[in-house]
Amino acid sequence: MSSEAQHAEERVVDTATGAEAPAEISEERVQHIFSNIAKQYARFNAVSSFGLFKGWLRKTVDAANLTPESDLLDLAGGTGDVSYMAASRRPPAHIQLTDFVPEMLDVAREREAAGAACGVPIDFEVVDAQEIPYADNSYDAVTMAYGIRNIPDRMKALREVHRVLKPGGTFACLEFSTPPNAVWRFLYHIYLKVMIPFWGQVFTHDRPSFVYLADSIRAFPDQEHYAQMLRDAGFSDVSWKNYAGGIVAVHTGHK
């Protein structure tokens, strides 16, 4: 990657456009959107992905290389989708479930109380992934689903993830991405423009916030550019797998 390209990826951006902007613009927007949708988040994901999102969560958990001895940090963990998939599919010894939005974690706690953790010990904490409050070399695995796209200083967050991973640890990141097929990409962008705001209106009566979500997906770097960001943050053996024709991708990197 050229020095200009690397600088572009290291900028603090407006996550809706990818243009340089103060971090507060995106952070306040994320707080507003996800505090409002917290109660409906699971239904929104299920409907907007036509039920495919659970399969993507399974692929993310599998990519994290969890063992019964693993200590897992779930960043931008929201209402607990990745954490509870891990607890049921590849239960680790402990999960630290974090999110930037307290209302999302409130729903995650309700799910734990209903038995979603399957007996795996889980702790909850409000955390900004740009400033992770944990020691170096603390976690065997870190997961993030649909989070990095909403972070204005993405390189800072990725370096923080690398810092808290133990040597040999794995970062598994599920994010919306760029379909490589031009026709499929065109159709997908029409869906983003029309249907994501529609579902937002149905579930939260807040169409403008979901216009932002669609815009943020289109503005996020494609698979190769995001992989290079991971390499620049210090990760090795970086790779990704596309799902649904590249609508989403699971990137992995190791320390």
UniProtKB/TrEMBL annotation:
It holds the Pfam family Ubie_methyltran. The keyword S-adenosyl-L-methionine applies. PROSITE patterns: SAM_MT_UBIE, UBIE_2. Its EC number is 2.1.1.163. Pathway: Quinol/quinone metabolism; menaquinone biosynthesis; menaquinol from 1,4-dihydroxy-2-naphthoate: step 2/2. Residues 1-22 are annotated as: Disordered. One of its GO terms (biological process) is menaquinone biosynthetic process. It catalyses: a 2-demethylmenaquinol + S-adenosyl-L-methionine = a menaquinol + S-adenosyl-L-homocysteine + H(+). InterPro entries: SAM-dependent_MTases_sf (IPR029063), UbiE/COQ5_MeTrFase (IPR004033), UbiE/COQ5_MeTrFase_CS (IPR023576). It comes from the Bacteria. S-adenosyl-L-methionine binds at T79, D99, D128, A129. The keyword Transferase applies. Residues 1-13 have a biased composition (Basic and acidic residues). Keywords: Menaquinone biosynthesis, Methyltransferase, S-adenosyl-L-methionine, Transferase, Ubiquinone. HAMAP family: MenG_UbiE_methyltr. Methyltransferase required for the conversion of demethylmenaquinol (DMKH2) to menaquinol (MKH2). Belongs to the class I-like SAM-binding methyltransferase superfamily. MenG/UbiE family. This is Demethylmenaquinone methyltransferase. The lineage of its organism: Bacteria, Bacillati, Actinomycetota, Coriobacteriia, Eggerthellales.
